[in-house]
Amino acid sequence: MKKFMDWMTNVFAPKMNKIARNPWVAAVQESILTAMPVILIGSFATVFNILRDFIPQIPDISMISNFSFGLLALFLAYLIPATIMEKKKHRKTAKQAGMAGLAFFLMIVYPSFDDAGNINILFSNLGTGGMIASLIAGLFVGAVMNQFAKHSFFGEDSSLPDFITVWFDTLIPITLILIIGWLFTFVWEISIFNIIYEIFKPFISIGQSFWGFVLLNFIGYTFLYTFGISTWVIYPITSAICLQGIGDNMALVAAGNAPININTGEVANLFALGGGGCTLALAIMILFLAKSKKLKVIGKSTIVPSLCNINEPLVFGAPIAFNPLLMVPMWIVGFIIPVVTYLALSSGLVPIPAEPFNFWYIPSPIVGYMVTKSFAGVLLVLVNFAISWVIYYPFFKVYDKQVCDEEKAEEEKKARLAAKKATRKEAVEEE
User: Fold this and answer.
1) Which has the closest alpha carbon to 109: 119, 99, 117, 118?
2) How far is it, in rounded angstroms, from Cα 367 to Cα 377?
3) In this structure, are residues 260 and 213 in contact, taking their beta carbons and an 8 Å threshold?
4) How far apart are CA 307 and CA 66, in angstroms?
5) Which of 45, 81, 109, 153 is the most exposed place for a label (fewest CB within 10 A)?
């Protein structure tokens, strides 16, 4: 165990954190975070739809969701190349890169034109249905623009205004990008969109499978987390799977079918109680059951964030990270709880979410009802909480005793030092 911990701490964790800081990965992460308001607007629409079940007079605002969350891929097509250019210190051409990304994406969704000249684009391709394509298109455009940004037609001492130099320096890369899109779509009649989708379809399918769901959640939001590795390192992968999953569920329900995708951010709300690793039970234990002075202080300072499903203060304060006594139960919980959740949803005991809901900071029992529109979702949250409590409890007791013993030893050490100091003082006074 010690060798494994040393290897994870000194070799694996630094490499993974380095990946998370990579400008290309960071650009995708930041772009999705930038688009978070439109995802939240989709969540607002979900809340209103739930209220409409009880108050029919409330207007239907689903169109607001369609033109916010439903345009997510379109927004990312702009944001990703723009953010890449900023990360690469080419801020002058960031907006131009974003516009090129937008144009290229609209080309590769394979639009058609009728006799009147009207453009026809499948609306779902502009939302989560086109998310994978927008990620690839954004990275491609960012790569092209970044390469050309390294060279300029004008020297640093040029007297021309900056906007003029930017115009000329971006003409060639933008033209090249548009020519590539034009050739594939309108000359060769090859759908890059479909090619990308077919390439990534197996990965999405794996992500929506039982083992894909369990392992992605275990590795990304529990195992790596216990070594201080940010969960953002796999966010580009998980978000692509989860966002497309909820988007497909929405489309299925709209077509009169039942939702089938379980690996969504909405489902994560049913088992990430207190945050990744289902740590809410541990936070409550530390607050109310800990005998250690240190843990009592930690319990008071971490309970509110934990209730809002924010557990960084607990993970790094208790600590859980790099602490085998609490890492092991978090691994067990991080594996078992997703298994229980998947089985509950796949068996039909709990409804599969079919609308976006990203208010993850709301206490879990409330979210359990909001995402499933069923009290079965609340019951599943309570069951997951009970399971996590049973798993964490014996490890917590051992750790609490260990910390108490350390505190007692420290107090005894201080008492001995104080006694020695007092003895020396008396000896000096007698002399």
Assistant:
1) 119
2) 8
3) no
4) 31
5) 153
